[in-house]
Specification:
about 100 residues, mainly alpha, Serine Threonine Protein Phosphatase 5, Tetratricopeptide repeat
Length: about 100
């Protein structure tokens, strides 16, 4: 049911706000794309949506974490040397700590 709900909500958000998606809408679309068979093109499409969400809200944790997952998967599965696991870790830490440097 979770996958079907992601698909339904993704379609709904695009229908209701086709020209002005918010970060949540973009993350939903990225998760809907993630349901497709794995490919480098799929990973690139997901990352582009997460990055668009981060342009709208640079501290939006679901987009930061989603970007991190895509970067790690792309590095692990496709051995793309331009993609850094350290970048993914940095995104995850930013999502958790909200940009704070210390406790």
């Amino acid at each position: 049911m979770g996958n079907a709900l992601i698909e339904i909500e993704s379609v709904r958000s695009l229908r209701e706000r086709p020209d002005n998606p918010d970060p949540f809408d973009l993350v939903l679309c990225a998760h809907a794309i993630d349901l497709r068979p794995a490919s480098l093109e799929r990973e690139n499409q997901e990352l582009a949506l997460f990055e668009r969400a981060l342009v709208l809200d640079p501290s939006y944790a679901p987009a930061l974490i989603g970007s991190g997952y895509v970067l790690v998967d792309t590095d692990r599965i496709y051995h793309k040397p331009s993609v850094s696991t350290a970048s993914a870790l940095s995104l995850g830490l930013h999502a958790v700590w909200g940009g704070r440097r210390s406790l």
